[in-house]
Structures are given as C-alpha cells and as structure tokens.
Design brief:
Blueprint: E1 4-9, H1 13-24, E2 49-56, H2 66-69, E3 91-93, H3 123-133, E4 137-140, H4 147-159, E5 163-166, H5 176-184, E6 188-190, H6 200-213, E7 217-227, H7 230-234, H8 242-253, E8 265-272, E9 279-290, E10 294-305, H9 306-326, E11 331-332, H10 334-340, H11 350-364
Helix pairs in contact: 1-9, 3-4, 6-8, 10-11
The protein binds nicotinamide-adenine-dinucleotide.
C-alpha cells in the first residue's frame, strides 16, 4: 500500500489530533472505526498518512521528534492516542513572520507560544526540506492572522511542486490569483479554513438551511464561541480576526434564503476561557418568523473538543488531495473545498457540497 507523505506547518492542537488519529485508526477495522466520514478514500485509509516534514517556531517543539512535539505545551487537546512510536522526523524551525502575536507575552508560558531562538529558514531552505522529504502536500495549521507566514508557506509549496491544504482563514484557495498559480502548475489545493466535523459552522449552516427549506424567515442570528486553547488566546488580538469573521459569517450568509443585514448577524470567536482548554462551547441564537408572521426563536449550546473535530475533516482533505495527485488533477478541488472548508472559492449548500465530494471520490478512486 502506498503512503501519503505530508508536511505540516504549525504543530499545534489540530496537528496533534490529526497525527494521533493516524495511529489510532491503524488498529481499528471498518466495523469498529468511530468518528470517520470515510474509512477509505480511493485505496487510502487513515493510517496510510505519514508525516515526513514539520515546521514550528516554539522552543518546546523545534528540534524534537514530531510524535513527541505534538504533546508539548502549550498544546492542550485531549490525548486519545498517547503512545506513539518515535517517528524519526524532527520538527524544524519555521519562519516566524506574523505567526506570533505580541499580546501572548502577557500570559503564562504554559498557555502561549514561546518562539525558539534558532535561525529562521529562508524560502530556499524550506523548499529544499520539502523536496528532500518527499512530501506530496503541505498542511497549513498556523494561527489565525498569519497572513504573511501563510503566503510564505504557500509560496514554498508552489516552488516545491506539492499540493496545499489551507486549514486556516487566510484566503489562498479562495483567492483567484493564488488559485490560478496552483492551477498553472497543476497542483491540487483545498481551502480555506477547515470546517469541523460537527462544529459551530456546520450546525449553524444546517439550521439556516432548515429555516429556508421550511419557509421560516430568519431575521437575526448570533453565534458566540468560547475556548481555552492557543487558537482562542491568539484571537483575543482583534486585529488578527478580520478574515476569521468574514469566513465564519459568510459560511452562514451563503445558505440563508436572503442575506441578513450586517447588523442582524454576529458570528465569531467571543472569548478566551483558560480552563476550557481545547473544549469549545458555542452558543447559537436564531430569531425568525413563521406562518402568519408569528415570531419564533431557537437557542442552542454545542460543546465539542475543538481539535479532533477538525482532524476528522482534515483526514479526508489529505486523502482527496492525494487522489487528485494520483490522477494528475490540479487547481482548487471545488467539491472537497466547499464540503471541508468554511471559505471555499465558491459556496454550495452542504447537501450539494457533500454530493460533489462523493462524486469527486468516486470518479478518481482507482
Ligand atoms: N479546531 C478547529 O476546529 C479549527 C477549525 C478551523 C480552523 N482552525 C485553524 O487551524 C489553525 C490551527 O489551529 P490549532 O488549534 O492547531 O492552533 P494552535 O495555536 O494550537 O497551533 C498553532 C501552531 O503554529 C505554530 N506556529 C506559529 N507561527 C508559526 C510559523 N510562522 N511557522 C510555523 N509554525 C508556527 C505555533 O507554535 C503552534 O504550534 C488555526 O488558525 C485555527 O483557527 C481550527
């Protein structure tokens, strides 16, 4: 069985959950594997994924074996598969750029990123590592607001001739200029901003779609989210938040019957509650009018572990990029991007996106 060789930029909680999952499902069979959308995509199972290169900037991660670094602080996600073998792949120093937000210095080190003092690599160095490692795609897991750093790693992926999975809300796959650059080189890309398996976005979208289908006029809505991981701490710097808010708000607006005025929709990360760690709690309120113009409202509270929730989708995104590579397909993978991500280049409702993804997998599975 062929392996899928991936490189990762940002070994935080999401990467930790993904890597744990690769090992967790190794000992499972299709009958007892819980929590996957697909056991197999083409010939690939979760355990066929292999991390061959990784970049981070935190002193507790750089220089360590990947399978140890994912358990280093400030990572705080639930450990569901803690007994990992040594991978033999050392975490390399990444290029910091805007990956680190200064406000983190006001918090205890156990909760924040602590930049390593190692020499930062240039583009040539990162490209060389990617090429020598045999990586077939790069997964971007940088903090929200890492605009320059994301462009740096996307540039490296292009130069190394590999695919790209953009898990974060910096617009690359949904930016026509970047989209064209990946298409030109026939390199597959999925993005932007991964949509968790059963998280706030998919739940809010599904309910919004339900209002539309049932003829209930949605007049006002909010989605407030709290969490205690570094993703939430990072997002306390409101200057980094713009694209996250756009991504999350548009994901809901896109499935509404008619767009809500800006004043009537509020969607976004709301606060950092340290003791929640990687537990994310989401509060949704929707106000509408049904038959006879009679008002109604709905309140929902969703509690999830944030990072495994995204890994359950990333594990499929990686395998779809691999299918594209096997079949010589490049550019944005539209079905998978719209099903797996909050901010694809084109929005479809989730039924349609699901079908497009199924069709993609069926068409390119050998
Ligand atoms: N959890 C989810 O469901 C979900 C959903 C959508 C998007 N995301 C996004 O995925 C990204 C990763 O999330 P997370 O929870 O793993 O974050 P995290 O804070 O746990 O991890 C970020 C990692 O990036 C590293 N880093 C910072 N700057 C870097 C640089 N320049 N080069 C290399 N590494 C760098 C940090 O040291 C840290 O290890 C975030 O942007 C988050 O918003 C997560």
């Amino acid at each position: 069985m062929k392996k899928i060789r991936i490189a990762i930029a940002g070994l935080g909680n999401c990467a930790s959950s993904l890597i744990q999952g690769i090992y967790y499902y190794e000992s499972r069979s299709p009958e007892d594997a819980i929590g996957l959308m697909h056991w197999q995509i083409g010939p690939y199972r979760p355990s066929d994924i292999e991390v061959v290169a990784a970049f981070d900037i935190d002193k507790r991660k750089v220089g360590r074996d990947v399978n140890q670094a994912i358990f280093a602080k400030p990572n705080c996600t639930k450990v569901f598969c803690g007994d990992l073998p040594v991978s033999g792949v050392k975490v390399r120093m990444g290029r910091i750029l805007d990956g680190f937000s200064e406000h983190m210095q006001n918090y205890d080190e156990s909760r924040t990123f602590v930049p390593a003092t190692a020499q930062e690599p240039g583009k040539e160095e990162v490209v060389r590592v990617l090429k020598e490692s045999g990586a077939e795609m790069l997964l971007n897991y940088l903090p929200v607001g890492s605009e320059e750093a994301t462009r740096f790693y996307a540039e490296c992926a292009l130069e190394a001739n590999i695919g790209f999975v953009n898990n974060i809300p910096v617009f690359i796959a949904s930016n026509p200029v970047w989209e064209a650059r990946f298409a030109e080189k026939n390199l597959p890309i999925i993005g932007d901003d991964i949509k968790a398996q059963l998280g706030a976005t998919i739940t809010h979208r599904t309910l919004t779609d339900l209002f539309r289908k049932r003829g209930v006029k949605l007049e006002r809505t909010y989605q407030l989210n709290t969490g205690g991981n570094t993703d939430f701490l990072n997002m306390l710097n409101r200057d980094r938040l713009l694209s996250k808010k756009v991504s999350k708000t548009e994901a809901v607006q896109a499935v509404a019957d008619t767009r809500l005025d800006d004043v009537n929709i509020h969607v976004g990360p709301s606060d950092y509650v340290a003791w929640q760690n990687d537990n994310k709690v989401c509060f949704i309120r929707m106000e509408g009018k049904l038959f006879g113009d009679v008002p109604m409202n709905l309140e929902l509270r969703l509690s999830v572990e944030d990072s495994p929730n995204s890994a359950g989708v990333a594990i499929d995104a990686v395998r779809c990029v691999k299918l594209a590579l096997d079949n010589g397909i490049g550019g944005v993978l539209e079905g998978p991007s719209s099903y797996f991500c909050k901010h694809p280049i084109r929005q479809f409702n989730d039924d349609r996106a699901y079908q497009m993804t199924k069709d993609f997998i069926r068409k390119y599975s050998k």
